[in-house]
């Protein structure tokens, strides 16, 4: 058991904790953090597993850098969407707003309906 | 009861997942990899134009990945500014009137700009590079924004879109130009590899910072009359 | 020659994306028309090159795998490239008329559209596991951006749900890639396959394959992970829905299929193959049933996608542990199913968009009387429906016929039930839409008339889907072209 392998196992733990959070938590920002936790776990596992022999391997490190940028882009986009969603609907989860369904559909509900 | 059952099932799934993954990792760790990529990389490092192996992988050997990755970042930026309302830029809520922040920012912003420059320059032979530098640059932009310094270029206008596209387009131009010069795509001519990679790094830093900053700015802010987060829904 | 074609496929879509980002909607539309013509020519060119000379490996940057990224340009890849060119050009053309140029956010449609196209091409040609991950993310984020465009609360809810599912799926895939890299030290799919074939199969890697397939199945919306698809495809603008249903879900399926065909023989198992097939079978029945029950027209079409995607997963049981001839037959059947579904579903969403535009409501029962006013769009919808049902001589029929033969030849007769029930149920939901549109007791005599070209585009796609059954032979002969290693550059 080399120290690198320890990182890989830490990655395993992070992935499963993140998975639990991602599925169970309904608040969108926390869900997003759970996604980032899984992501960190995957990156840790990728680097740790590849350099288990003790010798550093630059390729997975570069892959992880690419992966981090992709994850940041996705996270940032998700935050913008979530903030905007909260701004419009006042909701922090994806549950359908039941109270609002009783009213006649708002003009925005079927935007395709209006001839453009 | 149902809730407890749900949690219990999910815990069981996660434990099974962790167990399976750990077992796989353990089994893989027991056998050596048949391909020694680090060795192959070290052999070809001279031809790549940079001295740091990670930068060489990112900007030469696997530069197509990096090109697409910047594309992903630009997409996030585009989708972000398509949500933006111009008014949110003027929102006084976003400006903190914290005098400590204001004082700190006079020290930090120049320092962070220098740090970003250093990270960019360091990327060729030690840890650092375009993304790290861009992130620091964006962070200093966020700080300036919070301090209330007007940044008109962040309006969703021509200038912002140009900034978003700049790094990506230069990268793309180099990719295609290298092909027109006779070699394959993204195969830099060996004599120019170093300056080309440097140019790409500089414009990428700028664009990455722009994208991150634009995403920060375009997230709509809460108004005071709206419910606090957590109370709604 | 090849160099120019590869540039045309991989890099010019990115260039169009940048150009359209810089200009407004109307100029972006002109750039896009030009770009679509170029893409069409280039895709046809590459298809012709591969059809005459066979496939080849293309080394990006001149670096050989495992150091660099290699692209696999074979018959299947160019078939999908061409399909993408046809369907995306049709959707882009439709969108250029359908979208309102005066809404400020519509200008962002074009760059996202082109990034999506670039990502699709990257995935079809990709031969590197990590590069495929980046390509998938490019597609997902562009698709989410397109769904969220305009930013209404309902669209945002669908977009966020879609984004979450797509991100989780990508991470599961990436975790599998990390394990494979840890084992073999290479990311090239061809390299991994060669290592698996030459040496003893290491223990534990099945878990990696399962993870990757699970992630990709989530992104393809396989039952029971389909919950994100109908809201996202239903709420998006019609050209976007068409792109998403016809092409985007196919990208993740394509990777899953490639992984299965290359690695499944060593790392898969009979139980896994049957399980995936069974989920696909349930998806066919359940998705069709839900499609029948929907109130909104586009939800009908979206649930129909869930059902049609189910058929694709029959590839897994029908290619595992069978003879090469049967496996090839199943692969051909699935390829035809992908193509015919892409054409038919794009036609269906585009004509549904026209119908909704014309009656001003997205409900099925609001279609009453529309048959008198918009027979052309309704006819395209029906033609596409015929292909989904699998009636001769459509592409859907040819696909299901091949699958039927493959199931019988491999002794897995139980898939016949799925094929038959799926066809009947899809007939039910298509006829339900028809029935609604022929009710004549409405007093509304005012319908909005969309422009003629909006009606022509879905018709062309529906006719292509119909004619695919007759053209199946040349399409299949190129698709199954083997690929000659060693012919780089």
Descriptive terms for the model:
heterotrimer; A: 116 residues; Helix Hairpins; disordered C terminus; C: 489 residues; two-stranded antiparallel sheet; 20 helices
What this model shows, in words?
The complex is a heterotrimer of chains A (116), B (233) and C (489). Chain A is built from four helices and no strands. Chain A has one domain: Helix Hairpins (Orthogonal Bundle). Helix content of chain A is 70%, strand content 0%. The longest helix of chain B has 28 residues, at 2-29. Chain B is built from eight helices and no strands. Chain B has two domains: 1-31; 37-218, no CATH class. Residues 224-233 of chain B have low confidence and may be disordered. The model of chain C is unreliable at 484-489 (pLDDT under 50). Chain C contains 20 helices and two strands. Chains B and C meet through helix 1, helix 2, helix 4 and helix 7 of B and helix 1, helix 2, helix 5, helix 6 and helix 7 of C.
How are the secondary structure elements laid out?
The complex is a heterotrimer of chains A (116), B (233) and C (489).
Chain A: H1 3-24, H2 28-50, H3 58-89, H4 98-101
Chain B: H1 2-29, H2 37-44, H3 53-61, H4 63-83, H5 99-122, H6 130-146, H7 158-180, H8 193-218
Chain C: H1 2-10, H2 12-22, H3 25-53, E1 56-59, E2 70-73, H4 75-98, H5 109-125, H6 129-148, H7 153-184, H8 189-198, H9 205-220, H10 229-235, H11 238-267, H12 270-293, H13 297-312, H14 315-319, H15 324-359, H16 370-373, H17 375-389, H18 395-409, H19 415-438, H20 452-479
Antiparallel strand pairs in C: 1-2
Helix pairs in contact in C: 1-3, 2-3, 2-5, 3-4, 4-5, 4-11, 4-15, 4-20, 5-6, 5-11, 6-7, 6-11, 7-9, 7-10, 8-11, 9-11, 10-11, 10-13, 11-13, 11-15, 12-13, 12-19, 13-15, 13-19, 15-17, 15-18, 15-20, 17-19, 17-20, 18-20
Give a nutshell description of this structure.
Chain C: GO terms for molecular function: NADH dehydrogenase (ubiquinone) activity. Chain C: Residues 127-421 form the NADH:quinone oxidoreductase/Mrp antiporter transmembrane domain. The complex is a heterotrimer of chains A (116), B (233) and C (489). Helices cover 70% and strands 0% of the residues of chain A.
